[in-house]
């Protein structure tokens, strides 16, 4: 095998392994957009921005929203929206996963699913008065989490304790030395490392960033007028870089019902994270849950089996199904 082909193959396999270890990202189909007011024109513009954000989040393609199929939907995004509401100065939009996935298939666009590699972010803000490594629990941590969620990236932040403050200083992050970050990063279960050195000078922010994921590395620079805008610019650049490595061809899906017995509060939370990207909960009866999904039955069965759920065979004694009809019904229990 030629050397270049071996290298490309190794990179691809390393990303596949990481993808298999990744966990589903919560809120993949929920987008929050800032609002100046709640007037219909402002709301409609925010809905279009939310649509653009979602399409980029799922495809990594900055031109995808201009696809003729999607452009028609973009003119009236509410046809893909299950609900929206106002939270302070933001519009919170929940898109229907079934409609979105069907539309992307019709547009012929590959998709990046909910299972995404987690990134441990070492972010240092360097200002004339002081330098600060962003640790979990700091006000800036909330800002970084929001930026990562907005761009569809699972984010981990370090504790930022004294040992980390000493080990991860400005010189380490200025050079983006990933090897120097490995020892202090080993305590966190992350798939990749993102180091960011941000500077504030005269009210303008600049950042150099470096990403390491498996054998793949890349870096870049961004600038913005504010720290929130800078955080978004970094996360957007990382998302656009990563997406092509994880895109998959649209899967042939069909409507399917999933009934799960033996649920409690903790199990419901776990199951909802697993299935929410493909549909929604439609019925609760005692400890039984019923989901209506749009999914590949084969992939869905594999996912439920991986979650340690056991299929209920037709020969077992079990309560009557929660649903009947032509739609395929899969029945599982804990």
Concise overview:
This protein is α+β, with helices and mostly antiparallel strands.
Number of alpha- plus pi-helical segments = 11
**Separation of termini?**
47 Å
Order of helices and strands: HEEHHEEHEEEHEHHHEEEHEHEEHEE
At the fold tier of CATH, the topology name of the largest domain is Double Stranded RNA Binding Domain
CATH structural architecture of the largest domain: 2-Layer Sandwich
Query: What radius of gyration results from the CA coordinates?
Result: 22 Å
According to DSSP, the number of beta strands is 16
**Unreliable runs, pLDDT <50, ≥5 residues?**
1-21
Q: What multimeric state do the chains show?
A: single chain
What does this structure look like?
The protein contains eleven helices and 16 strands. The protein is an alpha+beta fold. It folds into three domains: 29-106, no CATH class; 115-246, Double Stranded RNA Binding Domain (2-Layer Sandwich), CATH 3.30.160; 254-333.
Write the layout of secondary structure elements.
Blueprint: H1 3-21, E1 23-24, E2 30-34, H2 40-59, H3 68-74, E3 81-87, E4 90-95, H4 97-106, E5 115-116, E6 119-126, E7 131-133, H5 139-150, E8 155-156, H6 162-167, H7 170-175, H8 178-185, E9 192-201, E10 204-213, E11 216-224, H9 227-246, E12 254-261, H10 265-275, E13 279-285, E14 288-295, H11 297-306, E15 310-311, E16 329-333
Parallel strand pairs: 6-8, 6-9, 12-16
Antiparallel strand pairs: 1-5, 2-4, 3-4, 6-7, 9-10, 10-11, 12-14, 13-14, 15-16
């Amino acid at each position: 095998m030629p050397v270049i082909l071996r290298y490309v193959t190794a990179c691809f396999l390393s990303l596949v392994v990481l993808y298999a270890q990744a966990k589903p990202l919560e809120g993949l189909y929920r987008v929050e957009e800032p609002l100046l007011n709640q007037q219909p024109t402002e709301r409609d513009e925010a809905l279009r921005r939310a649509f653009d954000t979602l399409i980029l989040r799922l495809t990594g393609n900055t031109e995808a929203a201009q696809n003729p199929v999607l452009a028609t939907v973009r003119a009236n995004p509410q046809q893909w929206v299950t609900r929206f509401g106002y939270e302070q100065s933001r519009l919170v939009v929940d898109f229907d996963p079934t409609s979105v996935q069907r539309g992307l298939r019709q547009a012929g666009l590959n998709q990046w699913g909910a299972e995404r590699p987690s990134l441990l972010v070492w972010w240092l803000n360097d200002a004339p008065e002081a330098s600060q490594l962003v640790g979990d629990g700091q006000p800036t941590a909330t800002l970084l989490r929001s930026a990562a969620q907005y761009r569809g990236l699972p984010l981990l932040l370090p504790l930022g304790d004294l040992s980390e403050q000493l080990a991860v200083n400005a010189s380490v992050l200025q050079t983006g030395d990933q090897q120097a970050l490995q020892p202090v990063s080993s305590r966190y279960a992350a798939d990749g490392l993102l180091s960011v050195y941000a500077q504030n000078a005269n009210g303008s922010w600049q950042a150099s960033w470096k990403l390491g994921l498996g054998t793949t590395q890349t870096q870049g620079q961004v600038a913005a007028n504010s720290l929130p805008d800078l955080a978004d610019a970094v996360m957007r650049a990382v998302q656009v870089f990563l997406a092509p490595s994880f895109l998959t061809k649209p899967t042939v899906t069909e409507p399917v019902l999933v009934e799960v017995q033996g649920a409690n509060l903790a199990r419901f939370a776990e199951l909802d994270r697993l299935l929410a990207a493909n549909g929604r909960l439609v019925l609760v009866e005692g400890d039984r849950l019923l989901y209506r999904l749009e999914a590949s039955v084969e992939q869905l069965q594999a996912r439920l089996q991986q979650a340690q759920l056991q299929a209920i065979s037709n020969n077992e004694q079990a309560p009557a199904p929660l649903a009947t009809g032509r739609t395929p019904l899969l029945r599982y229990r804990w």
